[in-house]
Amino acid sequence: MNVLTEQDIKHISVGAAVLGTGGGGDPYIGNLMALAAIRKYGPVRVVTVDELDDNARVLPASGMGSPSVLVEKIPSFEQLSAPLKAYEQATETKTDVIMPIEIGGVNSLIPVAVAAMNGLPILDGDAMGRAFPEAQMVTFHLDGLKPGVAAIGDEQGNAVTIRPVDGFWAEKLARQVTIAMGGSSIVCDYGISGKQAKQSVIPGTLSLARKIGALLTTQVTTDIHPITQMLDILEGVKLFKGKATLIERRIEGGFTKGEATFEGMDEFNSQTCKLFFQNEHLLAEVDGHPVAITPDLIAVLDEETGMPITTEGLKYGARAVIVAFPANEKWRTEIGIQTAGPKYFKYDYEYIPLETLAKERIKR
Amino acid sequence: MNVLTEQDIKHISVGAAVLGTGGGGDPYIGNLMALAAIRKYGPVRVVTVDELDDNARVLPASGMGSPSVLVEKIPSFEQLSAPLKAYEQATETKTDVIMPIEIGGVNSLIPVAVAAMNGLPILDGDAMGRAFPEAQMVTFHLDGLKPGVAAIGDEQGNAVTIRPVDGFWAEKLARQVTIAMGGSSIVCDYGISGKQAKQSVIPGTLSLARKIGALLTTQVTTDIHPITQMLDILEGVKLFKGKATLIERRIEGGFTKGEATFEGMDEFNSQTCKLFFQNEHLLAEVDGHPVAITPDLIAVLDEETGMPITTEGLKYGARAVIVAFPANEKWRTEIGIQTAGPKYFKYDYEYIPLETLAKERIKR
């Protein structure tokens, strides 16, 4: 995967929707944006974290806000590049490599489009190893790196540059600006050196997304179901299989928040699963017991096609397989759980690793 | 008034509270900030609009947000200067002259403090000729000038730079940033040339504030009451004399909004006056009839001392003289009324000049 093919982009959009745990927006939109950019501006080279020069300037680019809004107002090429330019002007630097801040549907491919437009390579890695709803929920923050300058743009042509005192202020200010911009924006922040990237980036996640996407979209000839193969790769757990019977979704404070209820099918017959989300799925309960808790990853897959369903795309009556994967070890530390664990999102649980919850569930 | 004395500053704070029509925060706070800055950093020279070089770079500095919040968290010297520095960095310019964006209690003296700290002169003029609650309510906007870069800072040390597409977006984005910053901020925006200042600035308003302040605070020996003298200077009207019997005040969307009711005294006995405000007084009604309508100026003065009372400082039982003055002719145009007239603030009146309303009232 030295240069991204159109096929790669399609696969990344699907795999990133799995790793994006329901958030990050419609993968189809990310797919369209990245393909359009590559067709217009030329191919994007992929560099691994190992290949980075220590002094290389690495800059994440991402969409911020409610995915419900983002899909309604797809960013223009101009909007996509404005924050990069504003960032470079404010910091008086030139960027060498673009990276995804998270592996989520749109946000894994917005940086690919930005890279294509500016003739820059894309980094094979991100700062979450999944998607999270808030800007400070990045491995950079866990490692004590400051967001530095954050540059934000909208489709009107407004550009805002923030020099926050820390990651929480970056989130607070950027979120309010995003709300004022109508609910979605494009952001460049947490510009880092190659050396810092080697310390803090979760490597290989773009490749991983591609691999998962390839698995789920390619007609396979083996007897092993693609979802089962994926669970093997990600050391994941099948949490539930059922039909969506109630979906409550609201746009609140610049997020898409809500709950989804599933009635069990097959081996889960007569059980009920509830998913709680804030852009991303953050908590899964079966019959009132937690079965997967943030920062571990929860994904909803179409039962028939195996394709991931976003929190936006989930509809009444959808038949789904719900799976979960362990979060990267960086998230399972004290500061990781403090930053993105259940208490932060006001869920009244202690964090318990997915594997432990699975064992407890077997005992019940 | 070539160099501002401590006495001048005191007088400006009082006079600007009159011209500030109840908004702009506690004049005492503005007084304290400007005095502290001058004592620490040295005197501030005053330049008139006529004296400006056409190429001079003139930059307004002001406080944004709810005055109720501003008085609770007085800006530090560092906070006061951060937006100027952020503005200069973002625009790659050096500022020659600081100016008040409005003549309101705190906002007429915050720029004096900023000027003192940076060894710059202050312009004798502003962009409202009074105080208004929103950022696009400036003569610059009426003359088609764009806000350009807006730089915003808070007491935490956060700095935000906005490049808005127009004045309305500047207001919207800066207001949300100010709310995220806790409800008050310091802003530098609408940087203009000396030539543009000559076209758009309302000249002499700092001197006018000083003159009014001197009048109201100095023990006079003539038989003419200081308030009467002030009404002569400003071609104003005495609207009402009465006692505050009901004050409703709330902080909403970054503003202090509300209504105040007064029961009449002396020649206004058995009449009732209602004032409607959003940071500033915007509408005065007596017995249900409008007697002064924005953009004309409405001020509340302590009946005994003649000192102005802000919308923040107004208390139940206060005995007050309510006066009004005609707005600068720039505000009485079609675009002026569209920008800051009664309809904009959702008051169900057409704008009628103060003088016309006074004649109608005599007929009733």
Short characterization:
Two copies of one chain form a homodimer. The first copy, chain A, folds into two domains: 200 residues, CV3147-like fold, CATH 3.40.1610; 144 residues, CV3147-like (Beta Barrel).
How would you explain this protein's 3D organization?
The structure is a homodimer of 364-residue chains. Chain A folds into two domains: 6-205, CV3147-like domain (CV3147-like fold); 220-363, CV3147-like. With 364 residues, chain A is an alpha+beta fold. The mean pLDDT of chain A is 91. In chain A, 33% of the residues lie in helices and 27% in strands. In chain A, a hairpin with a 1-residue loop joins strand 12 (272-278) and strand 13. The interface between A and B is medium-sized, with 22 and 22 residues. Strand 6 (159-163) of chain A pairs antiparallel with strand 6 of chain B, so a sheet runs across the interface.
